[in-house]
Amino acid sequence: MIRTMVCEKEGCSGNTFLIESRENNLFLTCAHCKSNYNFDISYYDFTILSNCSKCNNDTFKVFRDTDNKGIYAKCVECG
Q1: C-alpha 50 chain-centroid distance
Q2: How far is CA 73 from the centre of its chain?
Q3: How far apart are CA 59 and CA 44, in angstroms?
Q4: What is the distance between the alpha carbons of residues 75 and 79, in angstroms, rounded to a whole number?
Q5: Three-state SS across 16-52?
Q6: Would you say 31 and 18 are in contact if contact means Cβ atoms under 8 Å apart?
Q7: pLDDT tens for the chain, residues 1 to 79
Q8: Is the separation of the CB atoms in 79 and 68 below 8 Å?
Q9: Do residues 63 and 72 touch, judged by C-beta distance below 8 A?
Q10: Residue 46 has what pLDDT?
């Protein structure tokens, strides 16, 4: 099942994140409260970019596949 990731910090319900990937890790920063999250993506065959390749936006909605432990990102500007 794929679910939208929502910030877990108390009092924040942000669901948009800034993305940075380095050394097989994906670092997410909540666009609302700046809380940080870290995910191991060493098993991925692709790279998640920090900016949208279409519109250069840096803010994304992030989705988690609870069955397969996958992470997916969708640009909030152009989808």
Answers
A1: 9
A2: 5
A3: 21
A4: 5
A5: CEEEEEECCEEEEEECCCCCEEEEECCCCCCCCCCCC
A6: yes
A7: 889 999 999 999 999 999 998 888 889 999 999 999 998 887 776 667 788 889 999 999 999 888 877 888 899 998 7
A8: no
A9: yes
A10: 67
Q: Return the structure tokens found at 37.
A: 């999250």
Nearest Cα neighbor of 4 from 68, 55, 74, 52 is 74
Q: Report how far residue 9's alpha carbon sits from residue 58's, in angstroms, rounded to the nearest whole number.
A: 21
17 exposed, middle or buried (CB, 10 Å; 0-12, 13-18, 19+)? buried
Q: Which two tokens stand for residue 42?
A: 């060493």
